[in-house]
Design brief:
The protein is built from 4 helices and no strands. The protein is mainly α.
Amino acid sequence: MLENSPKTGAGDVIIKKYPSVKTNFSARIINEEQQTFIDLVIQILSMKSEDKNTSVLEQQIDHLAYQLYDLTYEEVKIVAPAFSLSPEKYECLRINEQ
């Protein structure tokens, strides 16, 4: 499939970059889960502009992302080895958010 693609000389294939598609996010319907992420990001940006610590809010976004992808505790520990919740607390968090 890529045998006719241009090469760099080192054996790497040169892949053409296509122009990105512009999306009008304001025209999309925002669901409750998306709004939660948006609200957290707005809070983080506001706090960062005031040089405040945002680590707790960033951790909330991490937890929401783990839930969004339905990660098990073991999978979270692979992605984030420093994850501080116990397996029991993580399960409670997952149950409470559903």
